[in-house]
Amino acid sequence: MKTVFFLLLSLGISASALYTAANMSNPFPVYGLVLSIWVLFYWSYTRRSRRIANRRFRENMFQEYMRSTMHNQRP
């Protein structure tokens, strides 16, 4: 849900900036702003997905550890 919100926010900001750049005599600073917004979105998305993948990996390792300790306790 956060990703969709940030995607829509990035789309809105970049679309309004590009509409503004259409009427400017020097639109290159606005293009830099749009590019930086999309780089920031991509960076935050990869950071969140990496954090989720690490959490999933730790949970799986903990489950495997618990399974192995349960098997060792049986007579």
Topology:
Layout (H helix, E strand, L loop, with lengths): L1 H21 L5 H46 L2
Helix pairs in contact: 1-2
Keywords: Membrane, Signal, Transmembrane, Transmembrane helix
Question: Can you characterise this structure?
Answer:
- The protein is mainly alpha-helical.
- It has one domain (2-73).
- It contains 2 helices and no strands.
- The protein has helices at 2-22, 28-73.
- α1 (2-22) packs antiparallel against α2.
- The chain crosses the membrane at residues 27-45.
- Residues 1-21 form the signal peptide.
State the secondary-structure class: mainly alpha
- The end-to-end span amounts to 48 Å
The counted number of beta strands is: 0
Number of domains: 1
Percent of residues in helical segments?
over 70%
SSE arrangement, N to C: HH
The major pleated sheet works out as: none
- Output the radius of gyration: 22 Å
Total helical elements: 2
Which runs of at least 5 residues are low in confidence (pLDDT < 50)?
A: none
Mean pLDDT: 92
Which descriptor suits the 3D outline? rod-shaped
Which range does the strand content fall in?
under 5%
Transmembrane segments: 27-45
Signal peptide: 1-21
Keywords: Membrane, Signal, Transmembrane, Transmembrane helix
